[in-house]
Amino acid sequence: MDISLSDVLTFLRLILDILVVWALIYSAFRLVRNNSRTIQILKGLLVIMIVKVLAVWIGLNTLSYLIDLFLNWGIVAILILFQPEIRGMLEKVGKTTAILPNEFQISQYTNMINELVDACTDMSNSKTGALITIEQSNSLNDYIQSGIRMDSQVSRELLGTIFQYGTPMHDGAVIIQGTQIACAAAYFPPTTKDLPSKYGARHRAAVGISEITDSITIIVSEETGNISVAYRGQLTQYPPEGLKRYLTNRLIQVDEQETPSILQPVIKTAKSFGLSMSKKSDGIVRIDERIKPIEVVDLLEKKQGGK
Length: 307
Ligand SMILES: Nc1ncnc2c1ncn2[C@@H]1O[C@H](COP(=O)(O)OP(=O)(O)OP(=O)(O)O)[C@@H](O)[C@H]1O
Prior knowledge:
This protein has helices spanning 5-33, 36-58, 61-72, 74-81, 83-95, 103-125, 141-144, 156-162, 201-212, 240-257, 264-272, and strands at residues 130-134, 148-153, 173-177, 180-186, 216-220, 227-231, 234-238, 295-297. By secondary structure, it is α+β, with helices and mostly antiparallel strands. Adenosine-5'-triphosphate binds at residues 129, 131, 171-173, 187-188, 190, 199-203, 205, 221-223.
Protein backbone atom coordinates (compact mmCIF):
# COMPACT_ATOMS: atom_id res chain seq x y z
CA MET A 1 0.00 0.00 0.00
CA ASP A 2 1.43 3.38 -1.07
CA ILE A 3 1.35 6.21 1.43
CA SER A 4 1.77 9.58 -0.21
CA LEU A 5 2.96 12.81 1.38
CA SER A 6 -0.56 14.19 1.19
CA ASP A 7 -1.87 11.19 3.20
CA VAL A 8 0.70 11.90 5.92
CA LEU A 9 -0.23 15.59 5.93
CA THR A 10 -3.94 14.73 6.15
CA PHE A 11 -3.21 12.40 9.07
CA LEU A 12 -1.12 15.04 10.89
CA ARG A 13 -3.85 17.62 10.29
CA LEU A 14 -6.41 15.23 11.79
CA ILE A 15 -4.26 14.65 14.89
CA LEU A 16 -3.72 18.40 15.29
CA ASP A 17 -7.44 19.03 14.90
CA ILE A 18 -8.29 16.47 17.60
CA LEU A 19 -5.63 17.84 19.99
CA VAL A 20 -6.78 21.45 19.58
CA VAL A 21 -10.46 20.54 20.10
CA TRP A 22 -9.47 18.43 23.09
CA ALA A 23 -7.47 21.33 24.57
CA LEU A 24 -10.49 23.63 24.16
CA ILE A 25 -12.86 21.15 25.83
CA TYR A 26 -10.35 20.56 28.64
CA SER A 27 -10.00 24.32 29.25
CA ALA A 28 -13.79 24.75 29.25
CA PHE A 29 -14.17 21.98 31.85
CA ARG A 30 -11.43 23.50 33.99
CA LEU A 31 -13.16 26.86 33.83
CA VAL A 32 -16.41 25.27 34.95
CA ARG A 33 -14.84 23.15 37.68
CA ASN A 34 -12.86 26.03 39.17
CA ASN A 35 -15.73 28.44 39.43
CA SER A 36 -18.81 27.83 41.56
CA ARG A 37 -20.76 30.45 39.56
CA THR A 38 -20.32 28.49 36.35
CA ILE A 39 -21.38 25.29 38.12
CA GLN A 40 -24.63 27.01 39.24
CA ILE A 41 -25.27 28.27 35.69
CA LEU A 42 -24.67 24.81 34.23
CA LYS A 43 -27.06 23.29 36.79
CA GLY A 44 -29.66 25.88 35.70
CA LEU A 45 -29.14 24.95 32.03
CA LEU A 46 -29.51 21.26 32.87
CA VAL A 47 -32.85 21.93 34.60
CA ILE A 48 -34.04 23.91 31.55
CA MET A 49 -33.05 21.03 29.23
CA ILE A 50 -34.96 18.54 31.39
CA VAL A 51 -38.04 20.82 31.38
CA LYS A 52 -37.72 21.11 27.58
CA VAL A 53 -37.66 17.29 27.15
CA LEU A 54 -40.67 16.94 29.46
CA ALA A 55 -42.54 19.75 27.63
CA VAL A 56 -42.01 18.00 24.26
CA TRP A 57 -42.97 14.66 25.73
CA ILE A 58 -46.22 15.91 27.34
CA GLY A 59 -46.97 18.17 24.36
CA LEU A 60 -46.76 21.59 26.03
CA ASN A 61 -46.07 23.44 22.78
CA THR A 62 -45.98 27.02 24.07
CA LEU A 63 -43.56 26.14 26.87
CA SER A 64 -41.40 24.19 24.43
CA TYR A 65 -41.39 27.16 22.00
CA LEU A 66 -40.40 29.57 24.80
CA ILE A 67 -37.55 27.28 25.91
CA ASP A 68 -36.36 27.05 22.28
CA LEU A 69 -36.33 30.85 22.09
CA PHE A 70 -34.40 31.02 25.38
CA LEU A 71 -31.84 28.46 24.23
CA ASN A 72 -31.40 30.18 20.85
CA TRP A 73 -30.50 33.39 22.64
CA GLY A 74 -28.43 31.39 25.13
CA ILE A 75 -25.10 32.04 23.41
CA VAL A 76 -25.57 35.82 23.87
CA ALA A 77 -26.60 35.26 27.49
CA ILE A 78 -23.54 33.05 28.08
CA LEU A 79 -21.24 35.71 26.60
CA ILE A 80 -22.73 38.31 28.96
CA LEU A 81 -22.80 36.07 32.05
CA PHE A 82 -19.28 34.74 31.54
CA GLN A 83 -17.79 38.05 30.48
CA PRO A 84 -15.30 38.25 33.42
CA GLU A 85 -14.22 34.62 32.94
CA ILE A 86 -13.83 34.99 29.17
CA ARG A 87 -11.83 38.18 29.64
CA GLY A 88 -9.59 36.46 32.21
CA MET A 89 -9.05 33.52 29.88
CA LEU A 90 -8.12 35.75 26.94
CA GLU A 91 -5.76 37.74 29.16
CA LYS A 92 -4.08 34.47 30.22
CA VAL A 93 -3.75 33.38 26.61
CA GLY A 94 -2.21 36.76 25.78
CA LYS A 95 0.26 36.47 28.63
CA THR A 96 1.36 32.95 27.67
CA THR A 97 1.77 33.27 23.93
CA ALA A 98 5.54 33.32 24.27
CA ILE A 99 6.77 29.70 24.33
CA LEU A 100 9.75 30.49 26.55
CA PRO A 101 9.34 32.36 29.86
CA ASN A 102 10.55 35.87 29.27
CA GLU A 103 13.16 37.54 31.42
CA PHE A 104 10.73 40.32 32.29
CA GLN A 105 8.20 37.87 33.79
CA ILE A 106 10.92 36.10 35.80
CA SER A 107 12.22 39.39 37.18
CA GLN A 108 8.65 40.44 38.08
CA TYR A 109 8.11 37.17 39.99
CA THR A 110 11.52 37.42 41.70
CA ASN A 111 10.66 40.92 42.79
CA MET A 112 7.25 39.86 44.04
CA ILE A 113 8.74 36.96 46.05
CA ASN A 114 11.36 39.25 47.61
CA GLU A 115 8.72 41.80 48.66
CA LEU A 116 6.44 39.06 49.96
CA VAL A 117 9.15 37.32 52.00
CA ASP A 118 10.42 40.65 53.38
CA ALA A 119 6.85 41.57 54.41
CA CYS A 120 6.36 38.16 56.09
CA THR A 121 9.70 38.49 57.91
CA ASP A 122 8.70 41.96 59.18
CA MET A 123 5.28 40.70 60.29
CA SER A 124 6.84 37.61 61.88
CA ASN A 125 9.21 39.83 63.90
CA SER A 126 6.43 42.17 65.00
CA LYS A 127 3.95 39.26 65.51
CA THR A 128 1.43 40.72 63.11
CA GLY A 129 -1.08 38.11 61.91
CA ALA A 130 -1.30 37.67 58.13
CA LEU A 131 -2.96 35.42 55.57
CA ILE A 132 -1.74 35.68 51.96
CA THR A 133 -2.87 33.37 49.15
CA ILE A 134 -1.20 33.11 45.77
CA GLU A 135 -3.46 31.96 42.95
CA GLN A 136 -2.18 29.13 40.76
CA SER A 137 -4.14 27.44 38.00
CA ASN A 138 -7.45 27.20 39.90
CA SER A 139 -9.28 30.53 39.77
CA LEU A 140 -9.81 32.40 43.05
CA ASN A 141 -12.21 34.92 41.50
CA ASP A 142 -15.12 33.75 43.68
CA TYR A 143 -13.07 34.48 46.82
CA ILE A 144 -11.78 37.79 45.47
CA GLN A 145 -15.39 38.88 45.20
CA SER A 146 -15.77 38.29 48.97
CA GLY A 147 -12.96 40.75 49.71
CA ILE A 148 -12.02 44.36 48.96
CA ARG A 149 -10.70 44.76 45.40
CA MET A 150 -7.21 46.31 45.18
CA ASP A 151 -5.22 45.50 41.99
CA SER A 152 -1.92 46.83 43.34
CA GLN A 153 1.74 45.92 43.04
CA VAL A 154 2.94 43.55 45.80
CA SER A 155 5.14 45.53 48.18
CA ARG A 156 6.54 44.99 51.64
CA GLU A 157 5.10 48.29 52.82
CA LEU A 158 1.61 47.71 51.40
CA LEU A 159 1.32 44.20 52.89
CA GLY A 160 2.58 45.53 56.24
CA THR A 161 -0.05 48.27 56.14
CA ILE A 162 -2.91 45.96 55.15
CA PHE A 163 -2.29 43.57 58.06
CA GLN A 164 -1.62 46.31 60.63
CA TYR A 165 -3.81 45.40 63.60
CA GLY A 166 -6.94 47.50 63.90
CA THR A 167 -7.04 48.72 60.28
CA PRO A 168 -10.24 48.04 58.29
CA MET A 169 -8.63 45.50 55.94
CA HIS A 170 -6.50 43.47 58.37
CA ASP A 171 -9.16 40.79 58.85
CA GLY A 172 -9.25 38.06 56.22
CA ALA A 173 -6.89 37.17 53.40
CA VAL A 174 -4.92 38.99 50.74
CA ILE A 175 -5.14 37.23 47.35
CA ILE A 176 -2.31 37.57 44.84
CA GLN A 177 -3.00 36.96 41.15
CA GLY A 178 0.13 36.86 39.04
CA THR A 179 2.33 39.48 40.66
CA GLN A 180 -0.50 41.77 41.80
CA ILE A 181 -2.53 42.01 45.00
CA ALA A 182 -6.06 41.36 43.69
CA CYS A 183 -7.86 41.96 46.99
CA ALA A 184 -7.66 42.11 50.78
CA ALA A 185 -10.09 40.93 53.47
CA ALA A 186 -11.20 37.83 51.55
CA TYR A 187 -13.00 35.02 53.35
CA PHE A 188 -12.08 31.34 52.86
CA PRO A 189 -14.08 28.25 53.87
CA PRO A 190 -12.18 26.77 56.86
CA THR A 191 -11.01 23.15 56.85
CA THR A 192 -13.00 20.53 58.73
CA LYS A 193 -9.82 18.65 59.66
CA ASP A 194 -8.42 18.51 63.19
CA LEU A 195 -5.52 20.90 63.70
CA PRO A 196 -3.28 20.98 66.79
CA SER A 197 -4.85 23.35 69.33
CA LYS A 198 -2.19 26.06 68.85
CA TYR A 199 -3.67 26.74 65.39
CA GLY A 200 -6.87 28.79 65.18
CA ALA A 201 -9.23 30.24 62.60
CA ARG A 202 -6.53 31.82 60.37
CA HIS A 203 -4.71 28.51 59.90
CA ARG A 204 -8.01 26.66 59.42
CA ALA A 205 -8.93 29.10 56.63
CA ALA A 206 -5.50 28.61 54.99
CA VAL A 207 -5.74 24.81 55.03
CA GLY A 208 -9.37 25.09 53.85
CA ILE A 209 -8.52 27.01 50.66
CA SER A 210 -5.55 24.72 49.99
CA GLU A 211 -7.85 21.69 50.04
CA ILE A 212 -10.18 22.98 47.34
CA THR A 213 -7.72 24.83 45.09
CA ASP A 214 -4.05 24.49 44.08
CA SER A 215 -3.24 27.91 45.60
CA ILE A 216 -0.27 28.53 47.92
CA THR A 217 -1.16 30.24 51.21
CA ILE A 218 1.28 31.88 53.60
CA ILE A 219 0.25 32.39 57.21
CA VAL A 220 2.03 34.54 59.76
CA SER A 221 0.90 33.73 63.27
CA GLU A 222 -0.09 36.67 65.44
CA GLU A 223 0.55 34.57 68.53
CA THR A 224 3.99 33.12 67.77
CA GLY A 225 5.23 35.01 64.69
CA ASN A 226 5.77 31.65 62.95
CA ILE A 227 5.49 31.53 59.16
CA SER A 228 3.68 28.55 57.63
CA VAL A 229 2.58 27.54 54.16
CA ALA A 230 -0.64 25.70 53.35
CA TYR A 231 -0.54 23.79 50.07
CA ARG A 232 -2.71 20.88 48.91
CA GLY A 233 -4.14 20.41 52.42
CA GLN A 234 -0.69 20.31 54.06
CA LEU A 235 0.55 22.84 56.60
CA THR A 236 4.32 23.34 56.84
CA GLN A 237 6.28 25.84 58.91
CA TYR A 238 9.31 27.50 57.30
CA PRO A 239 12.01 29.95 58.31
CA PRO A 240 12.04 33.08 56.05
CA GLU A 241 14.93 31.76 53.91
CA GLY A 242 13.10 28.44 53.44
CA LEU A 243 9.96 30.34 52.44
CA LYS A 244 11.88 32.25 49.78
CA ARG A 245 13.32 29.04 48.30
CA TYR A 246 9.94 27.33 48.47
CA LEU A 247 8.21 30.17 46.59
CA THR A 248 11.00 30.45 44.04
CA ASN A 249 10.77 26.72 43.36
CA ARG A 250 7.02 26.76 43.01
CA LEU A 251 6.50 30.04 41.17
CA ILE A 252 9.58 30.53 39.04
CA GLN A 253 11.46 27.29 38.49
CA VAL A 254 8.31 25.27 37.80
CA ASP A 255 7.23 27.93 35.29
CA GLU A 256 10.65 27.88 33.68
CA GLN A 257 10.49 24.14 33.09
CA GLU A 258 6.87 23.81 32.19
CA THR A 259 5.27 24.81 28.95
CA PRO A 260 2.77 27.68 28.94
CA SER A 261 -0.73 26.84 30.11
CA ILE A 262 -2.33 26.91 26.65
CA LEU A 263 -0.31 23.83 25.67
CA GLN A 264 -0.55 22.08 29.04
CA PRO A 265 -3.75 20.10 28.33
CA VAL A 266 -2.06 18.51 25.31
CA ILE A 267 1.10 17.75 27.27
CA LYS A 268 -0.85 16.33 30.22
CA THR A 269 -2.67 13.99 27.84
CA ALA A 270 0.59 12.95 26.22
CA LYS A 271 2.01 12.24 29.69
CA SER A 272 -1.03 10.19 30.65
CA PHE A 273 -0.36 8.07 27.55
CA GLY A 274 3.20 7.60 28.76
CA LEU A 275 4.87 10.02 26.33
CA SER A 276 7.57 11.76 28.35
CA MET A 277 8.04 15.38 27.40
CA SER A 278 9.58 17.03 30.45
CA LYS A 279 12.58 16.61 32.69
CA LYS A 280 10.26 15.60 35.56
CA SER A 281 8.66 12.78 33.61
CA ASP A 282 10.62 10.02 35.36
CA GLY A 283 8.05 10.15 38.17
CA ILE A 284 10.63 11.30 40.72
CA VAL A 285 9.59 14.46 42.50
CA ARG A 286 12.74 16.49 42.93
CA ILE A 287 12.87 18.23 46.27
CA ASP A 288 15.18 21.17 46.77
CA GLU A 289 17.37 19.91 49.60
CA ARG A 290 17.93 23.48 50.81
CA ILE A 291 14.24 23.93 51.71
CA LYS A 292 14.24 22.83 55.32
CA PRO A 293 10.81 23.00 56.94
CA ILE A 294 10.73 23.62 60.68
CA GLU A 295 7.64 21.48 61.11
CA VAL A 296 5.19 19.58 58.91
CA VAL A 297 1.87 19.66 60.76
CA ASP A 298 -0.14 16.45 61.11
CA LEU A 299 -3.72 17.06 60.05
CA LEU A 300 -6.36 14.48 60.92
CA GLU A 301 -9.90 13.99 59.69
CA LYS A 302 -12.29 15.18 62.43
CA LYS A 303 -13.54 12.29 64.54
CA GLN A 304 -17.32 11.72 64.44
CA GLY A 305 -18.95 13.62 67.28
CA GLY A 306 -15.67 15.49 67.91
CA LYS A 307 -15.33 19.23 68.05
N1 LIG B 1 -12.40 31.91 57.19
C1 LIG B 1 -11.51 32.89 57.22
N2 LIG B 1 -11.10 33.47 56.06
C2 LIG B 1 -10.17 34.44 56.08
N3 LIG B 1 -9.59 34.90 57.20
C3 LIG B 1 -9.94 34.37 58.38
C4 LIG B 1 -10.92 33.34 58.45
N4 LIG B 1 -11.07 32.99 59.74
C5 LIG B 1 -10.23 33.78 60.44
N5 LIG B 1 -9.56 34.61 59.65
C6 LIG B 1 -8.54 35.59 60.04
O1 LIG B 1 -7.86 35.06 61.16
C7 LIG B 1 -7.99 35.96 62.29
C8 LIG B 1 -8.22 35.17 63.54
O2 LIG B 1 -7.16 34.35 63.69
P1 LIG B 1 -7.00 33.39 64.98
O3 LIG B 1 -6.22 34.12 65.99
O4 LIG B 1 -8.30 32.78 65.37
O5 LIG B 1 -6.21 32.28 64.20
P2 LIG B 1 -4.87 31.53 64.50
O6 LIG B 1 -4.81 30.46 63.46
O7 LIG B 1 -4.79 31.15 65.96
O8 LIG B 1 -3.77 32.58 64.14
P3 LIG B 1 -2.74 33.31 65.11
O9 LIG B 1 -1.65 32.33 65.36
O10 LIG B 1 -2.34 34.46 64.24
O11 LIG B 1 -3.48 33.73 66.36
C9 LIG B 1 -9.20 36.80 61.97
O12 LIG B 1 -9.04 38.07 62.57
C10 LIG B 1 -9.19 36.88 60.48
O13 LIG B 1 -8.35 37.94 60.07
